[in-house]
Design goal:
Arc Repressor Mutant, subunit A, two-stranded antiparallel ribbon, 6% strand, 49% helix, 201 residues, mainly alpha
């Protein structure tokens, strides 16, 4: 989807507030600005302006991911439609929302941060949700290569421009035979250098 970071943040904020503060949802533009620019539960922290929020809303409305709420009074309010458009379950919505708002995360981090949206009984349930989203005809999540020293791999969403959140490539696997040949070549060169050193002495 052609969603830039501002559109992704607006969409994630709408999803979060619908699940965590339903009595204040749908959101006005002012409420949406505050939700997008929260200092907590956001990575990275942003300072999105009203014009940027309105532009993002137009983009999301064109994609039918967001709509103006009916009977919202004099001040327009907005609600997301991603659950309907992408046919998401509650657990899938929670995971996508967290990835939108906080960037790539491990299954453990997702479980610990999802309580207010959806309670996962165990880590395996989070992993199953991620796998289900990744296994769609059009994948919505992808796993990143493990960082050095980390026990869990991080996952990312696939709703925006890949250039905005590059997939970390897995380290290249070397052919064992090729490595053996290189070691032997280094040993031979070392032997030659030692012989030359003896001749010089």
């Amino acid at each position: 989807m052609p969603l830039n970071p501002h559109s992704l943040r607006v969409l994630g904020a709408l999803m979060e507030k619908e699940m965590t503060t339903p009595d204040q949802y749908p959101l006005t533009v002012n409420s949406l600005i505050s939700a997008c620019n929260q200092r907590s539960s956001r990575d990275p922290v942003m300072d999105i302006t009203e014009d940027e929020v309105r532009t993002a809303l137009h983009v999301l409305q064109d994609l039918e991911l967001v709509a103006a709420a009916r009977d919202s009074g004099r001040v327009p309010r907005y609600e997301h439609r991603i659950r309907t458009v992408l046919n998401l379950r509650r657990d899938e919505t929670a995971v996508i929302c967290l990835l939108l708002l906080r960037g790539p995360q491990t299954p453990g981090e997702l479980r610990s941060r999802s309580d207010r949206m959806h309670q996962f009984d165990e880590l395996a349930s989070v992993q199953a949700t991620l796998d289900r989203l990744a296994g769609r005809e059009t994948p919505l999540t992808a796993v990143l290569a493990k960082a050095p020293g980390s026990r869990e791999a991080r996952w990312m969403h696939l709703l925006g421009d890949p250039n905005d959140q590059p997939v970390q490539a897995a380290p290249a696997q070397q052919d064992p035979d090729s490595l053996l040949e290189r070691v032997r070549a280094l040993e031979e060169r070392l032997n030659q250098l030692e012989a030359r050193l003896v001749a010089i002495e």
